[in-house]
UniProtKB/TrEMBL annotation:
Matches recorded under SUPFAM superfamilies: Undecaprenyl diphosphate synthase
Name of the molecule in the record: Isoprenyl transferase
Coiled coil ranges: none
Keyword tags: Magnesium, Metal-binding, Transferase
PANTHER family: DEHYDRODOLICHYL DIPHOSPHATE SYNTHASE 2, DEHYDRODOLICHYL DIPHOSPHATE SYNTHASE FAMILY MEMBER
Gene Ontology annotations of biological process type: polyprenol biosynthetic process
Cofactor: Mg(2+)
One Pfam family this sequence matches: Prenyltransf
Summary of subunit composition and partner proteins: Homodimer.
EC class name: transferase
InterPro entries cross-referenced by the UniProt entry: UPP_synth-like, UPP_synth-like_CS, UPP_synth-like_sf
Amino acid sequence: MSFTDPIAPPFRPAEEVCRAAPQHVAVIMDGNGRWANARGLPRTEGHKVGELSLMDTVAGAVGAGVGYISMYAFSTENWRRSPSEVRFLMGYSRDVIRHRAQQLNEWGVRIRWVGREPRLWKSVIRELRAAEQLTAANTGTQLLLCVNYGGRAEIADAARGLALEVETGRRKASSINEKSLARHLYAADVPDVDLLIRTSGEQRISNFLLWQLAYAELDFVDIPWPDFGREALWKSITAFGRRQRRFGGTN
Ligand code: FPP
């Protein structure tokens, strides 16, 4: 971290936040483009500020004791954006991972990549793998970077994995159930999402963690991603702590 870095290292928030901290928070970082447009700036400027929001939010998750935080950085549908924005987002993701991996490592964060390989820039995959290796032994908060990720793609890939087991005689089709499918997800050991936060006021899931969101509490926050950070995360966690979760049962 350089001395000009405005991101404060993780620190513990109020007890109320720590008590409410969910095991798994998922975040749809939305609104970078609109934030920039509202200021007469190119969309890419919004993404650049979004890096600071990402780091501050992860610091907030570490401080609060969140076990896993999944960040939607690039979806399998984001390839539909203009070639120049896609090119920017690829180079930007590669650079963010390269520049921030060491700092995240110092915070005890374990970085994991979740997503599909095809189409993803080789240089992005290289940085993701290097960050995974660097932080593999860390036992703190796990940061799941969802890059070239799609919820339907993940479920389809899991179904293909099961079909292969049937085809090769390692499994009977009749043995397939929710548990066996879940074992074929990209990060099968990670628990379901407890709290999903989407910034920028849009109220959509956008193909994020479709399987893992089954019983998540949803928080659609009315501020753009570049204005989000640890304080906003802690506010969301505190509100989560007051929710009644029944998982299909009764109180
Ligand atoms: C959505 O805003 C945001 C993105 C598509 C990219 C967000 C990614 C980061 C902030 C960090 C990436 C970093 C790593 C480590 C991989 P939008 O463009 O959809 O905004 P809009 O809805 O206002 O157009």
